[in-house]
Design brief:
By secondary structure, this protein is α+β, with helices and mostly antiparallel strands. It is about 35% helix and about 30% strand. A hairpin with a 7-residue loop joins strand 3 and strand 4.
Length: about 90
């Protein structure tokens, strides 16, 4: 019985030690690709070797992005691409 209680207690402590959020990443460098796909999603690639990823939607607000914030992000990334400026993208992967 003591052994079972110890194992349950150990598992409970381990579960509390695991963070409740995903891994955080940051990519910096030149934007090589930024476009709006057929579904209205902003796609970006380039900084730090970042492969093309869907960033946000210009049509629908999500938990993390409003439509206005998505438009601002697209404008900022497009300006960085056209001017050759570096951009930094931080993201959390759940």
């Amino acid at each position: 019985m003591k052994k079972c209680l110890f194992v349950v207690l150990l598992l409970a402590i381990a579960a509390l030690a695991v963070p409740a959020y995903g891994a955080q990443y940051g990519c910096a460098g030149t934007v090589t690709l930024v476009f709006i796909n057929g579904s209205g999603n902003v796609e970006v690639a380039g900084p730090g070797g970042l492969p093309p990823i869907g960033l946000c939607s210009l049509n629908t607000a999500t938990t993390n992005w409003s439509v206005d914030a998505c438009k601002a992000a697209y404008a900022t990334l497009l300006a960085a691409k056209l001017s050759g400026q570096n951009a930094t993208i931080s993201l959390t992967i759940l």
